[in-house]
Amino acid sequence: NVVPDPTKIQEGGSNATARQNYQTFTVNHVDCNACHSFFQPIGLAFEAYDADGKFRTQYPSPISQPIDTTGTLSQAGDAMGDYKNVVELAGKLGNSKMAQYCMSQQYAQYAFGRAVNITQEACTIRSMGDYVTGKGGQMRTLLASFAGTSTLTRRYHTGATP
Questions:
Q1: What are phi and psi of 80, to 5 degrees?
Q2: What is the pLDDT along the chain (162 residues), one digit of tens a residue?
Q3: Distance of alpha carbon 107 from its chain centroid, rounded?
Q4: What's the DSSP call for residue 89?
Q5: pLDDT, position 145
Q6: 90 contact partners, CB below 8 Å, separation of at least 6
Q7: For the packed helices 18-28 and 33-43, what is the interaxial angle rounded to 10 degrees?
Q8: Helix or strand holding residue 129 (H, E)
Q9: Are 58 and 17 spatial neighbours (Cβ–Cβ below 8 Å)?
Q10: Whose C-alpha in 34, 130, 148, 150 is 20 to 30 A from the C-alpha of 72?
Q11: CB-CB contact of 71 with 42 (8 Å)
Q12: 8 A C-beta contact, residue 18 and residue 44
């Protein structure tokens, strides 16, 4: 039920960096942090790339400050820890079994066109994740992993049991 307010994005002021705006946002909107604390800090690692994907080390004028791309993954299982930039972040996630299984679940949801319940469909997610990790974690194997799941050809009742 949240309607985003674009004016809240730059609460640190027009000359604030993305990190300063995020820090101000977290102080002013504590109720929003339940979700934003999981994804927004990761996005700061991408600040070194402008809207066209060009690498930069400093914000353009009028901000004219160095870009801080450091961060810490918390509650991320085998991917937890500090990173300096998006390349280190990608390395942590790419080498993470937890991230590979998470990506398998997200892909299954996209491919099925519906939510995939991690409790009721654990075997589907596990099967896909095992296939991907068995192929060295290559994300391009997700389609083949999906094709091999029994969920693809069988319908399961996901309602309450009598």
A1: -65, 150
A2: 566 666 666 777 778 888 888 888 777 777 777 777 777 788 899 999 999 999 999 999 989 999 999 999 988 889 999 999 999 999 998 888 888 888 888 888 888 888 888 888 888 888 888 888 888 777 778 788 877 777 776 665 555 554
A3: 13
A4: H
A5: 81
A6: none
A7: 170
A8: helix 122-134
A9: no
A10: 130
A11: yes
A12: yes
State residue 8's pLDDT score: 63
Query: Do the beta carbons of residue 69 and residue 85 sit within 8 Å?
Result: yes
Full-model pTM = 0.69
Report how far residue 123's alpha carbon sits from residue 56's, in angstroms, rounded to the nearest whole number.
44
The backbone region for 77, taken as left when phi is positive above 0, alpha when psi lies in -120 to 50, beta otherwise, is left
The two tokens of residue 72 are 């810490």
| CB 141, CB 133: distance < 8 Å | no
Which residues, in sequence order, are bridge partners of residue 55?
49
Around Cβ 62, how many Cβ atoms within 10 Å? 8
86 HSE (CA, 13 A, CB side): 12
Contact by Cβ (8 Å): 62, 14? yes
Residue 37 confidence (pLDDT):
76
Query: How far is it, in rounded angstroms, from Cα 29 to Cα 97?
Result: 33
φ, ψ (nearest 5 deg) of residue 133: -65, -30
